[in-house]
Amino acid sequence: MGLTRLRGFQDLIGPDARAASIVEERARAVARRYNLSEIRIPMMERIQLYQHSTGETSDIVTKQMYVVRRSDEGAGTDDMVLRPEGTPSVVRAYIEAGLDRRDPYQRYYYLGPMLRYERPQKGRYRQFNQFGVEIFGRADAASDAELMIMIDDLTHELGLQVRFEINSLGCDEPNCRPAFRAALLEFGRAHLKELCEDCHQRLERNPLRILDCKIDGDRIAEAAPKSLDYLCDECRKHFDDVKQFLSRRAVPFVVKPNLVRGLDYYTRTAFEVVSASVGAQSAIAAGGRYDGLVKELGGAAVPGTGFAIGIERTALALQASESKFDAHPRVALVGLGDQGNLAAMSLAHDLRERDLPVELLPTDRKLKAALTIASRMGAAFIVIIGENEIARGVVQLRDLRASTQREVAQGEVAEAIRKAADALPPD
Ligand SMILES: [Zn+2]
Ligand SMILES: [Zn+2]
């Protein structure tokens, strides 16, 4: 048995892990600025949660969920699944805490892994992390727009070029969706021969699904009726308002009448965020409004809206972009001899307290070997301290990018490094 990782799963090591962390750190920072509160949700849920929310005809529920059973029992009816997306759990938690009735206006963010049985390709893995935001108790267009502006802020900070693709799917019973659904059903029945096998099943149960079919969805959606043509007056006004908010903030968007998203719960606003840097799998984030979902899952009639960003895809875009993130120059410290090692340990502590990333190099080998390690770790500076330096209260500060070396007083090392780093362009 080869102890290799499972197909579609990945190990993130070194710069790949770092890029993912940067996206997560920035996302949390943006969430703080928007005054969102964190919600932590379980890895596992009952299968029924997704059947009632994501949708029984969705690809996620029909093909992509990992069903879990305990090692001491056979497959049962009370199946548990590893969460394939975050929104259903957040809605369930919100209802379970009684907030839908007691205090419906809530704004959350979450961050964590999701699992889906996907066909693996670059930027698409079976376990991936999502940063998601859910806002409950607001039906206004401003809340949809604010979510997109939040994503725009984040991608801006990361130095990524993105474009928003937006659409409106209309409202659920009794307003504009039923007419759109009926038109789609009629269209599908008239074009049955052009639909794939799966879509024959999907059509009668949920005609919207033929538009996001992975096989022929794009072609079908091109010719099919468009939700925008069926919007009621309120939905049209809502969509116009969303666009106006986005324009005011200069968020780059295009209206995509074919965009439906592969989940059942969306109403009105739906959107995807596309980055030019990730290739075919170019959507790094997606979201939309789900005004019927809280009620559908047994709660009060509370509107909601949200999105999720794919951390790994965004990290890929980040790595493909020109953006540089290690604002702090890395420092390698070498102590020579017993006294030098003791002094180096203290100096490392001082520098770390000033927020400099410091690596204390191995003490069990020659200086030359230590210096080789320093250059391999990408250090910008090497600080050398031996008995001679201790006696005179100084260190040797070597600037690897400028190829210079000079003596600096022990109390001024951090300052000297900062100054030298500012003088050079980031690497
Ligand atoms: Zn409507
Ligand atoms: Zn199909």
Topology:
Elements: H1 15-33, E1 37-38, E2 44-46, H2 47-55, H3 59-64, E3 67-68, E4 80-82, H4 87-96, H5 99-102, E5 106-115, E6 127-136, H6 141-157, E7 162-168, H7 176-190, H8 197-205, H9 217-223, H10 233-248, E8 253-255, E9 267-275, E10 283-289, H11 293-296, E11 304-310, H12 311-320, E12 331-335, H13 337-353, E13 358-360, H14 367-376, E14 381-385, H15 387-392, E15 394-399, E16 404-409, H16 413-423
Bound molecules: zinc ion (ZN) (2 copies).
Report on the structure:
The chain has 427 residues and is α+β, with helices and mostly antiparallel strands. It has 2 domains: 15-175 and 232-320, Bira Bifunctional Protein, Domain 2 (BirA Bifunctional Protein, domain 2, 2-Layer Sandwich), CATH 3.30.930.10; 331-422, Rossmann fold, CATH 3.40.50. Helix content is 40%, strand content 21%. It contains 16 helices and 16 strands. It has helices spanning 15-33, 47-55, 59-64, 87-96, 99-102, 141-157, 176-190, 197-205, 217-223, 233-248, 293-296, 311-320, 337-353, 367-376, 387-392, 413-423; strands spanning 37-38, 44-46, 67-68, 80-82, 106-115, 127-136, 162-168, 253-255, 267-275, 283-289, 304-310, 331-335, 358-360, 381-385, 394-399, 404-409. An 8-stranded mixed sheet has the order 1-5-6-11-10-9-7-8. Strand 12, helix 13 and strand 13 (358-360) form a beta-alpha-beta unit. Helix 1 packs across helix 12 (311-320). It is elongated, with a radius of gyration of 27 Å. The mean pLDDT is 91. One zinc ion is lined by residues 195-196, 198-199, 213, 215-216.
